[in-house]
Amino acid sequence: xxxxxxxxxxxxxxxxxxxxxxxxxxxxxxxxxxxxxxxxxxxxxxxxxxxxxxxxxxxxxxxxxxxxxxxxxxxxxxxxxxxxxxxxxxxxxxxxxxxxxxxxxxxxxxxxxxxxxxxxxxxxxxxxxxxxxxxxxxxxxxxxxxxxxxxxxxxxxxxxxxxxxxx
Length: 167
Hints:
Layout: H1 2-10, E1 15-17, H2 20-25, E2 39-41, H3 45-52, H4 56-61, H5 63-74, E3 77-80, E4 86-88, E5 94-96, H6 109-122, H7 127-147, E6 151-155, E7 161-165
Parallel strand pairs: 1-2, 2-3
Antiparallel strand pairs: 3-4, 4-5, 6-7
Helix pairs in contact: 6-7
């Protein structure tokens, strides 16, 4: 928590907070408002529930309200992950993503999303737009993987690997 707070208080570049960063700050989440640089926070429903002191069911019942409440506590661009990931930068306007699928709910997927968002920020795209683009691209990548899920490699009669499409 001390390291995360120190980074927020001294960062001269945008900050993305995910997973353990969120968990480290959950008891002092309002410290995000002290960051002089833009912040993007990417909680899944469980992390959002810890931030807001409620249940995952309450988060899922009204995801936009949860996204708005996290924005109000943090002042950050909020990416509330899950089915139909929601992004807001002001608690009023929301982007609801339509790409992605349940197969993406796996360890490491959120790390990939944070990296994609960061890659857009590093290209000088504003944090909200970077988050929206990142969420879309991440979900589209998941959809492409799902589309090609039947694609496997097997060995031919000579023992060489050969790509085939399994129907």
